[in-house]
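Changelog-linked ticket: magnesium ion example.
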Amino acid sequence: MGRTIGEVVLDLNNVSLSFGGVKALSDISFDVREHEVRAIIGPNGAGKSSMLNVINGVYRPQEGEIVLRGEHFSRMSPYKAAQSGIARTFQHIALFKGMSVLDNIMTGRTLKMKSNLVQQAFRLGPAWREELEHRAKVEEIIDFLEIQHIRKTPVGRLPYGLQKRVDLGRALAMEPQILLLDEPMAGMNVEEKQDMSRFILDVNDQLGTTIVLIEHDMGVVMDISDRVVVLDYGKKIGDGTPDEVRSNEEVISAYLGASH
Amino acid sequence: MSFFLETLIGGLMAGMLYSLVALGFVLIFKASGVFNFAQGAMVLFAALAMARFAEWLPAWTGIGNPVLANVMAFIISVAIMFAVAWLVERLVLRHLVNQEGATLLMATLGIAYFLEGVGQTVFGSDIYKIDVGMPKDPVMMLESVFEGGILINKEDFIAALIAAALVGALALFFQKTPTGRALRAVADDHQAAQSIGIPLNRIWVIVWCVAGITALVAGIIWGSKLGVQFSLATVALRALPVVILGGLTSVPGAIIGGLIIGVGEKLSEVYLGPMVGGGIEIWFAYVLALVFLLFRPQGLFGEKIIDRV
Ligand SMILES: Nc1ncnc2c1ncn2[C@@H]1O[C@H](COP(=O)(O)OP(=O)(O)O)[C@@H](O)[C@H]1O
Ligand SMILES: [Mg+2]
C-alpha cells in the first residue's frame, strides 16, 4: 500500500447525545488518523449512525467536542463540515431522486464552483468553462465507479446496489479529505460487496482519503480497516486493531448477546 | 365555435398569469417547505412600488421620458423585492428552520400583513395607475381559419406572452444552471444537500427573489389592467388554488394548473354564470381546488403525500 498513516485529524472527546430519554451516545471518545480506514461497528441501535451524524453536524451532541485538525467545535454544522473537507454517504440512501446519475454527482462539486448567478444565467465564458472542468472531473469518478452505462438514468430507477455507488460518487466529487460511509454495503450481494470494498480501498490508497466506515459484515470490516471502534447501547466497549477487537471479551459477549 | 374559442383563449391568457405567480409559490415550497401565504401581498407590494416610483421619479429628478421613468421604477422595484427576500430569510426563515409547517405558514401570514401594512403606509392606500404602454384595443386573429376570426384582447395577449417568456426563462434557469441544479437538490433532500455543502440560506434567498420577480411582473400586468389597489392581493391569492390543483411540488403542475383555472374561470363565467348568477370568477378556483383536495390531495402532478418515518 502506498499510504502511511499520519497524525490524528479528527478527535472526538467525551461526546454524549440523547433524544428525549434515549441515550444514543454516552461519553464517547476516539480519534481518527490521517489516511487510515477506521471502522465503527456494533449491533443495531448501538449509536453508529448517530456518531457519523455528530461528526458532520447533522446531530448536535449535548456534551463533548469535535476536534478537526486542531480546531475545536462543540457543534458542527453540515455546511461547515462539507467546507472542512468532510463528505459522507447515508445509511438510507439520500440521493436526489428526480435527477440523473450525472447531475447527482455534479451536485457534489457545488463548493468548488466559483461562477456567480449572472454568469451562470447567461452562460458567460467563465461559468461555461467551469462547468466543463467539473464535468470532466465527474466523468473521471463515473469511470472509476464503473457506472458509465447509467450516467443519464434518473437515480430513482436504479437498483439499490447501484444507488449506493452513486451515493459514493457524489461524496467523492467533493474531493474530501475525510469520507464517512454509513453501511455502504448493506443489502448487497457478495460480488457487489467485493466491488464496493475495492472502490473504498482504492480511494483510500490512491487518493489518501481518510475513511470512517460503518459496516455490519465482520469479514469486510476485519479485512479493510486499520482500527475498529465498537459501540453497544451508546457506549464504547472496544477500540483497537481488528485482531485486538476480535479477542476482546466484552465485544464477543455484546455480539453473542445481541441479534444484529 | 369562434365564441367558445375566444373564451378559451381568453382563459388561457389569464391563466398564464396565475401560472407565473404559482411558479414563485411552488419554488418557495420546494426549496423550504414553506406554504407562502404572503405571495398575494408581495404582488400588491411590488405593484405599489412600481406605480409610485414611476410617479415619483419624474417629480424628483425631472425625468421627462415616461419610458425611462418606467424602466427606472422597474429596476428600483426589483431591488426592493430582492431586499424583501433577503430580509425574510434573515429575520424570519433562518430562525424557524426545522419548525412545523403550521408555524411557517403562520410566519408567512405575518409577512403578508407586514407587507400590506408597510406597503400602504409608505406608498399610500389609494388606487394608483401603472401605465407601461399596454395597448388597450382588441385585435382580430385567425381570420383565414374561422369565418369572422377571433377577437383577442391585445393587452391580455401581450401579458400572456410576457408571463410565458418569464416562466420559460425560469424553467430553463432551474434545469440548466448549477444554481438550478442545487435548488433541485435542496428540493429533493435537504439533509443530503446540506451535507455536500449547498448553502440552504442562499438557496432560500434566491427562491424568494424569484418569487419577488414573478410577483412584480404579475403586479405590473394586473395593476395596469385593474389599477393598483388592495384587491390585487386577493387576485394574486387565486394562485393558491392553482398550486393545490397542480401539486405543491410540481413546476409543470403550477403552469398547467394556472391554465386550467384561467380557462375554467372564463368558461364557467360565460356558460354557468347566467344560471347561478355572476361572480363565478371569484370562487371558481377555490371550489375546483376543494374538489381536488377531496379526491387527489397531491394535485395533478405532485408527489404522493407520504409521511416519512
Ligand atoms: N433522530 C432521532 N430521533 C430519535 N431517536 C434517534 C434518532 N436517531 C437515532 N435515534 C436513536 O438512537 C439510538 C441509536 O441509533 P443509531 O445511531 O441509528 O444506531 P445504529 O446506526 O448503530 O443502528 C437508537 O435507539 C435510535 O432509536
Ligand atoms: Mg445506523
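Closing comment: Example verified and attached. The mean pLDDT of chain A is 91. Residues A 19, 22, 24, 42, 44-50 surround adenosine-5'-diphosphate (ligand 1) (CB under 6 Å).
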